Amino acid sequence: RYKSVVTPRRAAVAIACCWIVSFLVGLTPMFGWNNLSKVRRTQELNASHTDVVITCQFETVISMEYMVYFNFFVWVLPPLLLMLLIYLEVFNLIRKQLNKKVSSSSNDPQKYYGKELKIAKSLALVLFLFALSWLPLHVLNCITLFCPSCETPPILTYIAIFLTHGNSAMNPIVYAFRIKKFRTAFLQIWHQYFCCKSAKTPPSTTTAEPGT
């Protein structure tokens, strides 16, 4: 029922909703959930007759309550755990189908579910890299919020920030190495827009692969 349920229109609506929610979550500090009032109160206590000067540093202007309670506990951790459970169930179902087809000595279904298993492994790798890249920074944010007296080495913070930015570059590489259609599409884009060559679609790409 996948083709009847996941239509191009529904996929476009789902992608648009993800972007809208991301914008709203990311812009929440600009709507008022920030440290501006706290900084102003501190400045007024220290020097009531001087203008408020705000040091533009992340932990100075962004509220750790927002980063931990709203960003991490609502929009990162629950979806991550949910996706983990979904992938575990997917792997379980695919392995059951593979064992069933192997016992019945049917080659075509085995090949089909083998491709499904390969794609599931690729997507699970993307999920693992996301967790590996983003959890260190969120853990540091939790330490900053729940243990104000704890000092975090700046080098750890820089590494955690670097990992979060690097995660955006990891996904295309993983897709290109693990999924043939993505690799073919990336090569076509590279030749057409970077090498100024006309994109010629190989005959093999016209045949749809099962499960993609």
How would you portray this structure in words?
By secondary structure, this protein is mainly α. It is built from nine helices and no strands. The chain folds into two domains: 56 residues, no CATH class; 132 residues, Rhodopsin 7-helix transmembrane proteins (Rhopdopsin 7-helix transmembrane proteins). The protein is elongated, with a radius of gyration of 24 Å. It starts with a helix and ends in an 18-residue tail after the last helix. The C terminus is likely disordered.
Task: State the gist of this model.
The protein has 212 residues and is mainly α. The radius of gyration is 24 Å and the shape is elongated. It contains 9 helices and no strands.
Query: What is the chain-wise order of helices and strands?
Result: HHHHHHHHH
Category from helices, strands and their pairing:
mainly alpha
CA-based gyration radius? 24 Å
Regions with little confidence, pLDDT below 50 for 5+ residues: 204-212
Q: Assign the CATH architecture of the largest domain.
A: Up-down Bundle
Biggest β-sheet strands, sense, barrel: none
When the domains are counted, the total is 2
The CATH homologous superfamily of the largest domain is called Rhodopsin 7-helix transmembrane proteins
Give the C-level CATH assignment of the largest domain. Mainly Alpha
Total beta strand runs: 0
**CA-based shape:** elongated
Write down the CATH topology of the largest domain. Answer: Rhopdopsin 7-helix transmembrane proteins
Tell me the number of helical segments per DSSP (H or I, 4 or more residues long).
9
What is the strand content? under 5%
Tell me the helix content: over 70%
Rounded mean pLDDT score: 84
State the end-to-end CA separation: 14 Å
Domain G-protein coupled receptors family 1 profile: 1-175
GO molecular function: G protein-coupled adenosine receptor activity
Protein name: Adenosine receptor A1
Pfam family, one: 7tm_1
